[in-house]
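User: Sequence in, structure out. Go.
Assistant: Echoing your sequence, followed by the structure tokens.
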Amino acid sequence: MQIPITRLLKTSIIIFCLVVLPINLYSQSQKENNVLLPVRVNGKWGYINEKGKIVIKPRFSVAGNFSEGLAKVRDDDSWFYYIDEGGKTITGKEHYRYADDFSEGLAAVQGENAEDKIGFIDKKGKIVIEPKFDSFTGKPIGSFKDGLAYIYLDGKVGFIDKTGKFLINPVYNYAYSFNENLAVINLKDKYGYINELGETKLSPKFAYASSFTGGLAGFSFDRQKFGFIDKTGKVIIEPQFDWVGGFSEGLAAVNVGMAWYGHQKSGGKWGFIDKTGKLVIDIKYEVANSFSEGLAPIKIYGKWGFVDRTGNIKIKP
């Protein structure tokens, strides 16, 4: 029996909204005025608008989120390329083994061969930073933020400007993008923070450190218990949780019961604390993501919903 395409489409949209949307809802690409969302129909990916209308016909095997009006896609028989909001290819015949989202007008790409170097293209598909950085090996590459991006050269991380010049030399094992004027760096398996001049602001002494949000950052001395520090390195919330998220709208998700399994942590339950460390939303959720516009996605009994800042369910899971 054939199922009508309208039913398939509606089913695909519902599945997408329930499973994918809570994870991606608050990404920058979703905040643009013209929101296009990837949706799968009959095994192929296309894009719908906010009204659920298909605006780019499902024809891709992989479809990424739109960022700055462009999205990376892939066909069955090719590597990645970029399309605009009309579905038109902007990179011509060029395809990439690795393709990042656009940020501040640029995106990191790697040619089709595994040994090709990483470079950056602009929104017309033109190479503006020559491919000269380490090939993609699974380690994250930083998108441009405030004119800087972290990138690997000879196995070490530094920060480049939009001409490809290193403004902060590649001497670190790892790094995160700058946030609130500081970036996490790793030296000799310890985490610390530098400013945009490359000056060390908090020396590498933490076993774990996250980016600053709302003036606080998650940290750990032993990767067992986690708390929060301020920008002077002062401990504001003592390490007492088994994992922590970042602060947003005055609250941070925290986990109790999460445990290490090899190199990964999983399990436990999530709730929310304020900046004094006070628990304001009970620890009972399987997953809890950051707040945006007064709501946070939570998962309970395998279903996604949304809570407000007092913990009241506003969208039923």
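User: And one key feature?
Assistant: The chain is about 5% helix and 45% strand.
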